[in-house]
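[SOLVED] Need 3D model of a two-part complex

Original post:
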Amino acid sequence: MSRSSIMPGFRPTIGFTLIYLSLIVLIPLSTLVFQSFQLNWDDYVHIITNKRVLSSFRVSFSTALVAALIAGFFGFIVAWVLVRYSFFGKQFFHALIDFPFALPTAVAGIVLATIFQPSGFLGKLLIDTFGVQVAFKPLGIVMALIFISIPFVVRTVEPVLLEFETSMEEAASSLGATRWQVFSKVIFPNVLPALLTGFALAFARGVGEYGSVIFIAGNIPYVSEIVPLLIVTKLEQFDIEGATAIALTMLVISFVLLLLINLLQFWVRKRSGQL
Amino acid sequence: MSAVTQPMNPAKLVARQQLALQDADWVRWSLIAIAVSFIGLFICLPLGLVIVKALSKGVEAYWAALSEPDTLAAIRLTLLTALITVPLNTVFGVAAAWAITRFEFKGKSLLTTLIDLPFSVSPVISGLIFVLLFGAEGWFGDWLIAHDVKIIFAASGIILATVFITFPFVARQLIPLMQEMGSQEEEAALSLGASGWKTFCAVTLPNIKWALLYGVLLCNARAMGEFGAVSVVSGHIRGLTNTLPLHVEVNYNEYNIVGAFAGASILAGLAVVTLVLKTVLEWQQAKR
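Solution:
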């Protein structure tokens, strides 16, 4: 208690924090809730169960899930390689990991669209060799979201791998475990909570992502139209109610999913004895 | 040394232990190959393509695209947005971190969660909420029209949405660091008679300066590059309410590839500069 009596500046800093937070974040966000009160339940259900709206939800959540899984797998390998091995150019690759964070999403969008479009460098290659078209399909959205997701996974897994005590590995191996057993029974369970966090961050970001997706997606209704784009479309048609209803639904689903993933993480941590 | 029956001869055991502590060469090299090609495909290739496309019709076409009045207006608006957004959120970040890490009060963890809120809101929704407030049909719509104030489809809307999007960046860097540092040094300065402001400048600031710069850097990168939120409130008026990312979009949709990638090359350059500075700051932080 002595600490709060000698430290100055509580009132001005907390006052400014609360006012600024309310003005910039809380009041604007609350409009979403109040605006949707103006809709009655039947109208709301009517907007949300529209076929085009439902299919955009399906596209957004499924592509974000697949992308986060793929980014989780490869991101783990990248983090492992960057922490455990040394090779030429490692520092350079290490610095590059954050490039998707730093690159404006619109730039990422036009670049990926250019690479993967049917006449593009990789797009042509994939069509010619595998007959797979990436651009203007859900697969294109997945590609864009993988790009966005890489740093989330690598940057959450990396510190845990760095801090991991090799003495635990030594103990396991001196008890006769094989390398694969050491990895799967000792290392992986300890890294799993961090990997889940990275996955959750990637997934949450992927569901709401707009700029990097819209160029490569082609935005074909029922096929490759994502929820954020549908919100923009509704707004451009001055359908404020529609846009608000969809936005609020998306926000609520994302929060619920984040909550579930946090619970899962808590459970994994508890099970592996980190709590 | 008692004679215990050994399950394996010692030399073999040591060899096996080493085996279990290190990955086999083929595992190591294939994992490195996977990681490097993954980064190469998803990161190096896009970076290279921006430069190739921007210069695809020669250096002159590139310069012409950059010196177009609309491009210059977009660059000016982007700079203005960052110039207002970054200082505001920096002051907020420092104030919030000071209040949260130096005092005990009820609802502290709720406050920390609320500060992070803009991170979990889709950029498009971040723009939408300002349309709901200030748009023609919004809460303050009638008042704004009556007083001839324009926020949506104007620079002020773009700045507001950007402030929302980049809200947590600085606070997020400072809170964990200042929590970990504790307040003993500041208490010592205060008990020796330094004023609160002097304590902050002479004791706190030197300790947090690298993390502060780091937060400012990330905040600035996002402020200059934000697309989704800004695109909802901007209205895409050429030369007036297009930021550089929006200008890139407009050019791309009009099949002006050199124009789009010329703008994109500036933004990619910004990203590279951000990464370099970030790496330098990380070294500085690691040195401490």
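Edit: DSSP finds 14 helices and no strands in chain A.
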